[in-house]
Design a protein that fits this description.
This is DUF6647 domain-containing protein. The protein has 173 residues and is mainly alpha-helical. The protein has helices spanning 7-21, 35-50, 67-74, 79-82, 107-122, 133-147, 156-164, and strands spanning 61-65, 87-90, 95-99. The protein has a three-stranded mixed sheet. The protein is globular.
Length: 173
């Protein structure tokens, strides 16, 4: 089932998401029936129908954080990747961090939330190499954007290389 992206509904949801996610330390839970909850539900339903990953029994915590905090949380990212960092998932706390500015009326920003929801679904599985999770997350994000008529601007060779978990920077010594 295709769940259409509604800019009006997402703008309304943005108010609710902003109200619950601005703090890095604490946030109020999403109230039942709220616009934010409906947006999350729509994304989860899309994933139910378009991925093999089961929906976890509980929803993740979602927070919007400044880029500097995201960079700290990301830890070992190379400087060149930090400017492109739009979201993170912490499997230990089941928390999705969206990097500000994050606009619920922008389908590309919402696709970042969808990407991180994929990681939430992947969290309980065993991954020999955690980077392997990225390939499916990007493929699902791209499929969602494509359904909206948006051509994803991903550099697939780099995603494939980073998700392959092969050795890097191997030089003869």
């Amino acid at each position: 089932m295709h769940i259409p992206f509604s800019t009006t509904a997402c703008r309304a949801a943005g108010i609710a998401i902003a109200a619950i996610t601005c703090g890095v330390v604490s946030a109020e839970p999403v109230s039942t029936g709220s616009d934010a909850e409906r947006l999350l539900s729509a994304l989860e339903e899309w994933l139910d129908q378009n991925s093999a990953y089961a929906r976890p029994p509980s929803a993740p915590t979602i927070r919007v954080i400044p880029p500097a905090i995201a960079a700290d949380l990301a830890g070992g990212l190379e400087a060149g990747h930090l400017g492109r960092l739009r979201g993170l998932f912490d499997p230990e706390t089941s928390t999705i961090y969206l990097v500000s500015p994050w606009d619920v009326s922008d389908p590309e920003d919402v696709s970042v939330l969808l990407h991180e929801l994929v990681h939430h679904r992947q969290a309980k599985q065993h991954w020999y190499c955690p980077a392997e999770q990225e390939w499916d997350a990007y493929k699902l994000q791209a499929a969602w954007l494509t359904e909206l008529g948006i051509k994803p601007d991903f550099y697939w060779p780099a995603i494939l290389l980073s998700a392959s978990c092969g050795p890097r920077d191997v030089h003869p010594g």
